[in-house]
From TrEMBL:
Protein name from the UniProt record: Flagellar biosynthetic protein FlhB
Native source organism of the sequence: Halobacillus litoralis
Residue ranges that the Swiss-Prot or TrEMBL entry lists as coiled coil: none
NCBIfam families: flhB
Cited InterPro entries: FlhB, T3SS_substrate_exporter, T3SS_substrate_exporter_C
Keyword Protein transport recorded: yes
UniProt record, GO biological process: bacterial-type flagellum assembly; protein secretion
Spans annotated as Disordered: 17-36
Family in the record: Belongs to the type III secretion exporter family.
């Protein structure tokens, strides 16, 4: 029964039931693993591109018409030489660029805007690294027949159906006018079909954007589910962030030793050591050029206090016994810091006594 309880606790600790920590989120973001919907990109792209076509249609038509007029009114009369061919090619390229460049610019802006809206600014090369695990046929088969693949299939069928229904509905509503275009001029017919095509594109883009909201919600839910952590993972993360307790203890011990060694090197320069007499020892120094008030160069209790007194004795530093002052200075003073104002009078009396004693000696 005991083993069964331990096994249950072990499996419970390994279950991914906890939300990801900020560090886990940051690490997954560095790897390029962020919630993102391609439908948002597609919807923005179609909406802005067809919007640009709707606004710039007249300009594009005029440019293309001008190209045809120039070709059949001027270029057709030119001599077919290398220089003339190069000149015509350059002029045509410039005119075509005037038509294509605005649409390409809008497409680039749409791509950047949709990604910034979902992911924000992110630079990472992790997804570009070669990963041989991706070539594993077993894992590949699992991805193909996974629940995520089924969702993507249903989503694709839904998108095709939506776009098909919208396109058919617009054509069906305008079928009578389409049939009448055979009796209209080419210019009128082209304008009509261009308008219908733009309407179909904008309607499809709006439908995809509505669908992309649902898709992004699902992608975010799936991402949160994939980065969940177990209680053991969280403990391991905290342990790695804080470091091994044994190593931390050794570092602190080393720091204490270095601090004690540095303090001991300052004791010979102290003016006086105030003691408890056995448990506390505080080395005081007054140097007017360094501080307006006396400051503590070393302090300690028990063993460290004995070492301070031993070093002071070896270097002829006067020791003064004052139990309440020693305790108070130890509790309210820091090393290399001036003493508190409340101790000025008491320490001044001690220093005065020390200076008189040194003068007699």
């Amino acid at each position: 029964m005991l083993y069964l309880n331990l096994d249950l606790q072990y499996f419970a600790a390994d279950e991914k039931t906890e939300e990801a920590t900020p560090k886990k989120r940051q690490d997954t973001r560095k790897k390029g693993q962020v919630p993102k919907s391609q439908d948002v990109n597609t919807g923005f792209l179609l909406l802005l591109v067809f919007g640009a076509l709707f606004l710039l249609g007249g300009y594009m038509k005029g440019t293309m018409t001008g190209m045809y007029e120039l070709a059949f009114s001027e270029y057709i009369h030119r001599d077919l030489t290398q220089k003339q061919t190069h000149s015509m090619f350059v002029e045509m390229t410039i005119e075509i660029t005037k038509v294509i460049a605005p649409i390409m610019g809008v497409a680039i802006v749409a791509g950047l805007a949709s990604n910034l809206l979902q992911v924000g600014i992110m630079f990472t090369g992790e997804p570009l690294k070669v990963d041989l695990k991706k070539l594993d046929p077993i894992k590949g088969a699992k991805r193909i027949f996974s629940a995520r693949a089924l969702v993507e299939l249903l989503k694709s069928l839904l998108k095709i159906s939506m776009v098909g229904v919208i396109t058919f509905a617009i054509i069906w509503v305008n079928k009578d006018q389409m049939l009448m275009m055979s009796q209209k001029s080419v210019e009128v017919a082209l304008a009509f079909f261009g308008t219908i095509t733009t309407i179909m594109g904008l309607a499809s883009a709006l439908a995809l954007l509505i669908l992309s909201v649902l898709d992004y919600t699902y992608q975010r839910y799936d991402h949160e589910k994939n980065i969940r952590m177990s209680k053991k993972d969280i403990k391991d993360e905290h342990k790695n962030m804080e470091g091994d307790p044994q190593i931390k203890a050794k570092i602190k011990e080393k720091q204490r030793q270095m601090s004690a060694s540095r303090m001991m090197s300052e004791v010979p320069d102290a003016d006086v050591v105030i003691t408890n007499p056995t448990h506390y020892a505080i080395a005081i120094k007054y140097e007017e050029s360094k501080s307006e008030a006396p400051f503590v160069v070393a302090k300690g209790v028990d063993f460290l206090a004995l070492k301070i007194k031993e070093v002071a004795r070896s270097n002829d530093v006067i020791t003064v016994e004052n139990r309440p002052l020693a305790r108070s200075l130890y509790q309210h003073s820091e090393i290399d810091q001036p003493i508190d104002e409340q101790f000025y009078k008491a320490v001044a009396e001690v220093l005065a006594y020390v200076y008189q004693l040194e003068k007699k000696m």
